[in-house]
Amino acid sequence: MKVLIIGSGGREHAIAWKVAQSSRVDKIYCAPGNAGIAEIAECVNIKAMEFDKLVKFAKDNAIDLTVVGMDDPLVGGIVDAFEAEGLRVFGPRRNAAILEGSKAFSKDLMKKYNIPTAAYETFTSAEEAKKYLETSEYPIVLKADGLALGKGVLICQTKEEAMEGVNELMLDKKFGSAGNTIVIEEFMTGREVSVLSFVDGSTIKIMSSAQDHKRAKDGDQGLNTGGMGNFSPSPFYTKEVDDFCKAHIYQATVDAMKAEGRPFKGVIFFGLMLTPKGPRVLEYNARFGDPEAQVVLPRMENDIIDVFEACIDGTLDKIDLKFSDKAAVCVVLASDGYPVSYEKGFEITGMENFKGKDGYYLFHAGSAFNAEGKVVTNGGRVLGVTALGDTLKEARANAYKAVEWVDFKNKYMRHDIGKAIDEA
Questions:
Q1: What pLDDT was estimated at residue 423?
Q2: Which of 301, 318, 335 is the last residue of a domain?
Q3: Residue partners of 101: CB distance under 8 A and separation at least 6
Q4: Which domain holds residue 132?
Q5: Residue 251 phi/psi, 5° resolution?
Q6: Phi/psi at 204 (nearest 5 deg)?
Q7: Quick check: helix, strand or coil at residue 248?
Q8: Partners of 198 in beta bridges
Q9: What pTM was computed for the model?
Q10: Would you call 243 helix, strand, or coil by DSSP?
Q11: Is residue 84 part of a domain?
């Protein structure tokens, strides 16, 4: 088979790496890809939102399967564009990707189908939102309705902070049109857990749990980022939690989307909060998480092409999804200054240290080739260093050992990824 992967981050590198292990695949392309992906795939200079060019490329090169990694093209309808030309593509159609594309839609869906989530209200007017905040309890959560690179969520401790947050989202347009509508919801306490799943429209198969670290600095301080590291499985995702989610959240979401005439095929990412009253849905994503993919896919034992095709064909019930007992930890190496402003173009050295080392992986998130053909930094999140271990503590120690193998100017990381493991 020939496979095309759409995207350029660490998630897409992890997907390409997993696809490359399939005995069914001869050739991988990635559009636009990055310097790390270029080692296992032919990178194509087409951007993820250039649907017409991507469709033409898939037809001209007889691509058998296209895998969409990113949220923007999914929400924009890339799957519909490919299907209209008779091309096989993995990911939800536009009318299903709205599960991530609109926070207001997903909250309304959960309310309608009794899927446990935080109490909330939706606003299209800054004035009305501020009026609501006058009598609210604090802390409180403000969410931009649309896509905001995983950063459109503000946790406000005081009324003043919340009022300023409304200004940022709705008036200053910090995240553009994503803030035209906002959701204001109650602040939930507890552990956050990420659970990824494969869905074929009717059947859902749960992957292994993971836990993200969103804030830029140690101790969960600093600004929200796309994710500074991850570990899998989460020791807080117990059998009791799993049973509850299977009974009240997972299948209920798939059934709700089907009932709404929006059957979902692809990956649903459940962002959960394990509250004292039980698990609640924080948010849905309509694709693999980043860096969740970097800890979940190395533990997956199935041929991923078989799973992708089962999701497309509606035969997921025939797949026995398997994950190794190993644990995985990913530490993101970022450019100092991320997520606000940072320099790029610095040479990355030491990548060869990962070659031939079993259980250690280097996933490129923001890398490129310079004019001399050297690999340089090209983003806020540059690399994801993933390591396996027999236990989470061992995987964590291995990951922090491996971050020293690779270097670039202004390298920055958190030093407490997976620290919660010590409390488990």
A1: 66
A2: 318
A3: 71, 74, 75, 146, 147, 286
A4: 119-186
A5: -65, -35
A6: -125, 135
A7: helix
A8: 205, 267
A9: 0.93
A10: helix
A11: yes
